[in-house]
């Protein structure tokens, strides 16, 4: 599927646009403008292909959104699988889930689709994605409970802790910028370290050295984008 390409037409030399470019472009538009505020014509115009060409690869806009959600869900599942394979204690596994997922979403916008607009997905697709998301959250909740049991995580409500974890991970996609103050690796390392310190029964004395000091330009140039501001969202 990823090897399939769209023929790009225009002045000068012809070239192609692969599905990864289509997915990345769609994810950026959906996350910044919303599902209902984005049209296939918008995507086609940016990619330099005809709208009709897109229908060869996706049935409609809902089908495209569904595919992005399945990619995002798989990124979360992969992060869980790696964490359970690499970690020893419940805390280590939780930190690794956070690290791997944030590393994935800062590398590709298609890895984090949190858009849930009414009517955006077909009912059967919405039910499938919701079921998958809940399964991931329950697995993460189990890791928190495991950490409480093995003594690596402080006594807490696993459900509440999981809500905090999920919210922290997903919000990164709202403000991260590739040309910002931090690399994706620094953000993954830093956020996972902060979360681990907050949950640990024996917290580390400090954060990773390369993010322990504030980036002087971070607040003025890379502050979180206001999801309610059309002007801000339009600058993405």
What is the annotated CATH architecture?
Orthogonal Bundle
CATH class: Mainly Alpha
- Major beta-sheet overview: 2 strands, antiparallel
- Helix share bin: 55-70%
* Number of spatially distinct domains: 1
User: What is the fold-level CATH name, i.e. the topology?
Assistant: Tetracycline Repressor, domain 2
The average pLDDT is: 83
Number of helices: 11
Number of strands: 2
Question: Using only CA atoms, what is the Rg?
Answer: 19 Å
Q: Give the overall form.
A: globular
Distance between the termini: 27 Å
The topology string of helices and strands comes to EEHHHHHHHHHHH
Strand content: under 5%
Which superfamily, in CATH terms, is the homologous superfamily?
Tetracycline Repressor, domain 2
Structural class: mainly alpha
* Uncertain residue segments: 8-15, 216-236
Task: Give your account of this protein's structure.
By secondary structure, the chain is mainly alpha-helical. 62% of the residues lie in helices and 3% in strands. The protein is built from eleven helices and two strands; from the N terminus they run ββααααααααααα. It has a two-stranded antiparallel sheet.
List the helices and strands and how they pair.
Layout: E1 5-8, E2 15-18, H1 19-33, H2 40-47, H3 51-54, H4 61-86, H5 90-107, H6 123-150, H7 158-175, H8 184-199, H9 209-212, H10 218-222, H11 230-234
Helix pairs in contact: 4-5, 4-6, 5-6, 5-7, 5-8, 6-7
Give the tags.
62% helix, Tetracycline Repressor, domain 2, disordered C terminus, globular, 11 helices, two-stranded antiparallel ribbon, 236 residues, mainly alpha
């Amino acid at each position: 599927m990823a090897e399939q390409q769209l023929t790009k037409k225009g002045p000068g030399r012809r070239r192609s646009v692969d599905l990864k470019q289509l997915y990345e472009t769609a994810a950026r538009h959906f996350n910044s403008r919303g599902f209902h505020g984005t049209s296939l014509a918008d995507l086609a115009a940016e990619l330099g292909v005809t709208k009709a060409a897109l229908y060869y690869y996706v049935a409609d806009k809902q089908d495209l959104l569904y595919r992005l959600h399945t990619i995002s869900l798989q990124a979360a599942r992969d992060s869980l699988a790696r964490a359970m394979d690499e970690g020893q204690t419940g805390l280590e596994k939780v930190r690794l889930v956070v690290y791997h997922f944030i590393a994935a979403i800062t590398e590709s916008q298609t890895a984090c689709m949190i858009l849930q607009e009414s009517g955006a997905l077909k009912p059967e697709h919405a039910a499938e994605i919701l079921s998958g998301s809940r399964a991931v959250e329950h697995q993460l909740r189990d890791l928190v409970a495991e950490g409480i049991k093995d003594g690596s995580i402080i006594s807490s409500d696993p459900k509440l802790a999981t809500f905090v974890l999920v919210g922290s991970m997903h919000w990164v996609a709202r403000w991260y910028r590739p040309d910002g103050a931090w690399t994706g690796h620094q953000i993954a390392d830093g956020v996972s370290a902060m979360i681990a310190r907050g949950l640990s029964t024996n917290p580390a004395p400090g954060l990773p050295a390369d993010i322990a000091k504030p980036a002087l330009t971070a607040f003025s140039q890379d502050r979180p984008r206001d999801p309610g501001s059309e002007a801000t969202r339009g600058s993405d």
